[in-house]
TrEMBL record:
Keywords, in A-Z order: Disulfide bond, EGF-like domain, Endocytosis, Glycoprotein, Lipoprotein, Membrane, Receptor, Repeat, Signal, Transmembrane, Transmembrane helix
Protein's cellular compartments: Membrane
A molecular-function term among this protein's GO annotations: Wnt receptor activity
Name the record gives this protein: Low-density lipoprotein receptor-related protein 1
Spans of repeat LDL-receptor class B: 186-228, 229-265
GO CC annotations, alphabetized: plasma membrane
Domain annotation EGF-like calcium-binding: ranges: 39-76
InterPro entries from the UniProt entry: 6-blade_b-propeller_TolB-like (IPR011042), cEGF (IPR026823), Cueball_EGF_LRP_Nidogen (IPR050778), EGF-like_Ca-bd_dom (IPR001881), Growth_fac_rcpt_cys_sf (IPR009030), LDLR_classB_rpt (IPR000033)
Species this chain originates from: Tauraco erythrolophus (Red-crested turaco)
Cited SUPFAM superfamilies: Growth factor receptor domain, YWTD domain
SMART domains associated with the record: EGF_CA, LY
């Protein structure tokens, strides 16, 4: 009988001067209370792959999602040289090209003394940037600045006339904090820590609906994953936690509640 037959395909034979025994090969693990090995599903372990993981017998294969390319075992977005990073800084928004070492840190929007940008998100398809201002209880947006000098000059003239800012007609907001854009359905989600709710509306504030209320104390940041139909938010109230739910407010679930104190982002 050969060593392979004795131990099986999932195990290897170890011989010493006093004994011979079988041990599971790499990618397999011993079945409890049985003298056999079973495949290890590496994809169940968080962080095995950068994005997509496909388990195989005794191993696994990592791959990248659409519009991403594999670089040094990591997935990097295609066309990264054209990506822009927008940064909220008190009452202004600045922009830079993070993958261009010669990129300048340029102003994209300058608000007046009443503007306090708490959170923002970009609606790329609509070429708009949205933000919450909890000092004034408003959600506002403006068009993203154009790249050409001529268009920038035009935008500067427009800001001198009307600031280029539109305030959504959403009544009763007390302390809007986090904001997230559903770029698939064209909706905006926000948290209101003054009223302890999570709400949704269309891009201009129409058809507003409360999704989450009750058992929520100080909701802060929120993000949405429209491709999976889920949303996530942080709550830094008396019982701090991070929660998730479907984007219609159903299937609510707590993700993190132990050893967490001040989750704001």
């Amino acid at each position: 009988m050969t060593n392979t037959t004795m131990c099986g395909d999932e195990a290897q034979c170890i011989q010493s001067q006093s004994t011979t025994y079988c041990t599971c090969r790499r990618g397999f693990q011993k079945v409890p209370d049985k003298n056999s090995c079973q495949d290890v599903n590496e994809c169940l372990r968080f962080g095995t792959c950068s994005q997509l993981c496909n388990n195989t017998k005794g191993s696994h294969v990592c791959s990248c999602a659409k519009n991403f390319m594999k670089t040094d075992n990591m997935c990097k977005a295609e066309g990264s040289e054209h990506q822009i990073l927008y940064i909220a800084d008190d009452n202004k928004i600045r922009s830079m090209y993070p993958f261009n070492p010669n990129s300048a840190y340029e102003p994209a929007f300058q608000g007046d003394e009443n503007v306090r940008i708490d959170a923002m998100d970009i609606y790329v398809k609509g070429n708009k940037i949205y933000w919450t201002n909890w000092h004034t209880g408003r959600i506002s947006y403006r068009e993203l600045p154009a790249s050409s000098a001529a268009s920038n000059a035009s935008n500067r003239n427009r800001r001198q006339i009307d600031g280029g800012v539109t305030h959504l007609n959403i009544s009763g907001l007390k302390m809007p904090r986090g904001i997230a854009i559903d770029w698939v359905a064209g909706n905006i989600y926000w948290t209101d820590s003054g009223r302890d709710v999570i709400e949704v509306a269309q891009m201009k504030g129409e058809n507003r609906k409360t999704l989450i209320s009750g058992m929520i104390d100080e909701p802060h940041a929120i993000v949405v994953d429209p491709l999976r139909g889920t949303m996530y938010w942080s709550d830094w109230g008396n019982h701090p936690k991070i929660e998730t739910a479907a984007m219609d407010g159903t299937l609510r679930e707590t993700l993190v509640q132990d050893n967490i104190q001040w989750p704001t982002g």
